[in-house]
Structure formats: structure tokens, C-alpha cells
């Protein structure tokens, strides 16, 4: 059997055989430990868990195919448009609401709220008796416990290995460390109907049906094969996302070069149009009022050509900018998955993210050198020469 209970950093057994905490919380006659003078910064480092449009935390975050994350309120406001308000990528669902939940960001919000309670100067109270100050956090039960309730908790779970840490130690750690530790304590549950609610822990992955299974399902159902360790599968998926992200960074360089080229082309077009307008005005002024009507026609022609070129470049710039924003969102999401995602979140979200990243991989930046130059002024020049 595993150890009855793990308490960081030390624990001991009392006379009845149960594990009791050592040096837990303030002792009689001992002043309580004062909180750290400077609390770790949480808000700035974890703004990415909020909606990317309104920048507010929400329990209902949706992940779009462009890999941007929006809350239901922003998506509802955006329904008539049917596009991502960040990069203007079309939302394929007719309702305008994506099917994929951003489980990573939603779960991180919940875990950060726990850390904020720990970092609060008053400190959390016991989740069970509600009367005493909490001295211990059990990551398995996700509860704060006072010394007395922790002793009862250990007796009840004496045959299970629950890792508990002092609130004082957690308060001294950073939010990043707390999220990493809580990620390690999460378990994957069996994907068979009914087993997840019963707490069947999954340790096996079926490559045939692409599901996580508990030992019972793997042994009793002969249709499942071949198997591999669930941790190996989650590592493989993380590595696959990492590889796609690195390849995406290389492709992003090509899109950035194209974007810069398009901006230079737009500036060149504006400069050429401005020079032509000045030339037209100089020539027309020489003819005074005899050809005012011709002057207006020439100016109208230049404006039409200029507007045509501007519209074409605007569409190209908008499309390339949208792709760049999607790539940036994909890189950030993969990075946060590597840092904070639980195995359950990897199993649920990886296929969706992978499809979106592979779609971005298939995109090719437009070649600026082969494009037809917009706003051609040949006709205008010919008429001016004739004039």
C-alpha cells in the first residue's frame, strides 16, 4: 500500500497509528506567523486566462478555430458578424458559438482563485468546520483544513496517498509553482460511460479507439488494443504540439516578411499617386479655365485607380494580419498548455488545437513580386500627354 498520507515537509505517527501533522499552524502561546510583506504578483502574469476581447475572467470561455479565446458574452454580441473580433477569421458554427471549451484557461482560473485565497493577508478558513484558520491544503480533496480537521482527514484517508502542504509554505511560493504542483496532482478518469463519475482512474490509453481507459475496461473488453501508458500518450501529444509550434514559428517568418512587403507596397502606391496628383495639377493650371472639365476627369481617374489599389492591398493586408494573429494565438496556447495543462486538458483539447495548427501550416504567404501592380496610371498619362 502507498504511504497513509504525505505531508510536506514532515509528518509523524501518533499512538493510534494515524499520521499526525508536525509543526502544524500556530501552537498555544506562540504568535501566529505573519504573512509575507510582499505578495506574489498574480494578475499581470496570468492575464492570458481572460477573454481576449473584453479582458475579463469568465467561467464560459470558448476556443475558436483561429485559437483565440472569447467568453460567451463577447461571442453573443458578435453573432450577426460571425467572425472572430480579434483576427476576423470566420466562425464555422451557424450559431456563432464554437463547440470547443477552453478547459485549460477555465481550470486555471479556478486554480488561481484558490491561490488568491492562500495569498490573501487574512488567509483561508477551514473548508470543513468553517471556524478555524486553515493550516493545510490537500490538493487531492481541494480543501483547506485546520489542524483538527486535518487529523480527521488523515484517519479517513489513511489508505490513500493524499499530498498535503502547509498554507504557510504555499503562500511563500509563486503562483507559477502552485499551478505546476496542482497540475501534477490531477488524475485522468476513464472515458467509458459512467466510469468518470465513479472516479475510475485511467492509466491506459487505447490506440484503436483513442480513449483513456481504466484497468477494468482494458481487461474486460477485448476490442481495446493495442495499449500504451496514458502518461506516454499525453507526453507524445504535448511533443506533437511543440513540434507543430516550432514549425509554425518558421512559417510565421515568411508571413511577417510578406506583411512588411505589402506595407511597403502600400506606401509606394500612396507616394506614386501623390506625385501624379501634383503633376496633374501643375499641367492643368497652365491651361487655366479652358480645360477645367478635363482636369476633373483626370483627377477622377486617378482617384478611381487609387481606390482600386487601396482596396486590393487592404484585403491582402487584412488577410495576412489575421493569419499572423492566429499564429500568435496558437504559439501562446501551446506554450501555456506545456506549462499548465493537466493530462485531462491535453487529452480533451489536443486534437482540436492540432487541427487548427495543421490548417495554419497549410497556408502559404502570397508572393508580392508576382502580383499585378494596382492603380496603373498608363491611361491617365496618355491622356495627359495628349492634352
From TrEMBL:
- SUPFAM superfamilies with a match to the protein in the record: RING/U-box
Q: Which GO terms describe its biological process?
A: innate immune response; intrinsic apoptotic signaling pathway in response to DNA damage; suppression of viral release by host
Compositional bias ranges of the Polar residues kind: 7-21
Its cellular-component GO annotations read:
nucleoplasm
Record InterPro entries: PML-like_CC, TRIM45/56/19-like, Znf_B-box, Znf_RING, Znf_RING/FYVE/PHD, Znf_RING_CS
Using the UniProt annotation, give all residue ranges assigned to the region (Disordered): 1-40
Q: Would the keyword Mitochondrion turn up in this protein's UniProt record?
A: no
Superkingdom of origin: Eukaryota
Query: Which spans of this chain does the record mark as coiled coil?
Result: 245-282
Where is each RING-type domain found?
51-88
Q: Does the keyword Metal-binding apply?
A: yes
Sorted keywords for this record are:
Coiled coil, Metal-binding, Zinc, Zinc-finger
Which positions fall inside the B box-type domain? 126-167, 185-224
Comp. bias regions, Pro residues: 28-38
Q: Which CDD domains match?
A: Bbox1_TRIM19_C-V
Q: Which GO terms describe its molecular function?
A: zinc ion binding
What's this protein's name? Answer: PML protein
Q: Which organism is it from?
A: Rissa tridactyla
Q: What is the lineage of its organism?
A: Eukaryota, Metazoa, Chordata, Craniata, Vertebrata
Amino acid at each position: 500500500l502507498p504511504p497513509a498520507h504525505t505531508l510536506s515537509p514532515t509528518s509523524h505517527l501518533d499512538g493510534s497509528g494515524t499520521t499526525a501533522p508536525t509543526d502544524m499552524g500556530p501552537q498555544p502561546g506562540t504568535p501566529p506567523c505573519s504573512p509575507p510583506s510582499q505578495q506574489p504578483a498574480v494578475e499581470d502574469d496570468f492575464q492570458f486566462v481572460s477573454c481576449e476581447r473584453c479582458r475579463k475572467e469568465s467561467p464560459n470561455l470558448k476556443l475558436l478555430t483561429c485559437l483565440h479565446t472569447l467568453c460567451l458574452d463577447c461571442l453573443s454580441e458578435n453573432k450577426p458578424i460571425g467572425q472572430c473580433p480579434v483576427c476576423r477569421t470566420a466562425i464555422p458554427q451557424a450559431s456563432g458559438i464554437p463547440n470547443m471549451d477552453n478547459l485549460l484557461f477555465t481550470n486555471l482560473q479556478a486554480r488561481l482563485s484558490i491561490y488568491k485565497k492562500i495569498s490573501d493577508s487574512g488567509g483561508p478558513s477551514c473548508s470543513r468546520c468553517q471556524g478555524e484558520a486553515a493550516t493545510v491544503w490537500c490538493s487531492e480533496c481541494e480543501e483547506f483544513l485546520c489542524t483538527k480537521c486535518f487529523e480527521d482527514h488523515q484517519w479517513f484517508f489513511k489508505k490513500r496517498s493524499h499530498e498535503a502542504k502547509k498554507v504557510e509554505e504555499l503562500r511563500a511560493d509563486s503562483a507559477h509553482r502552485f499551478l505546476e504542483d496542482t497540475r501534477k496532482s490531477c488524475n485522468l478518469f476513464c472515458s467509458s460511460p459512467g466510469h468518470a463519475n465513479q472516479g475510475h482512474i485511467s492509466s491506459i490509453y487505447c490506440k484503436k479507439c483513442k480513449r483513456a481507459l481504466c484497468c477494468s475496461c482494458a481487461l474486460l473488453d477485448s476490442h481495446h488494443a493495442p495499449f500504451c501508458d496514458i502518461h506516454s500518450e499525453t507526453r507524445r501529444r504535448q511533443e506533437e504540439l511543440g513540434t507543430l509550434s516550432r514549425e509554425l514559428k518558421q512559417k510565421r517568418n515568411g508571413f511577417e516578411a510578406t506583411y512588411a512587403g505589402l506595407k511597403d507596397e502600400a506606401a509606394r502606391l500612396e507616394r506614386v499617386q501623390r506625385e501624379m496628383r501634383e503633376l496633374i495639377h501643375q499641367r492643368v493650371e497652365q491651361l487655366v479655365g479652358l480645360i477645367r472639365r478635363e482636369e476633373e476627369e483626370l483627377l477622377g481617374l486617378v482617384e478611381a485607380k487609387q481606390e482600386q489599389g487601396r482596396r486590393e492591398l487592404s484585403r491582402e493586408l487584412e488577410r495576412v494580419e489575421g493569419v499572423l494573429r492566429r499564429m500568435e494565438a496558437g504559439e501562446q496556447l501551446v506554450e501555456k498548455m506545456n506549462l499548465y495543462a493537466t493530462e485531462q486538458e491535453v487529452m480533451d483539447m489536443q486534437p482540436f488545437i492540432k487541427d487548427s495548427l495543421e490548417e495554419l501550416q497549410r497556408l502559404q504567404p502570397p508572393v508580392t513580386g508576382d502580383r499585378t501592380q494596382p492603380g496603373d496610371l498608363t491611361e491617365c498619362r496618355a491622356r495627359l500627354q495628349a492634352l
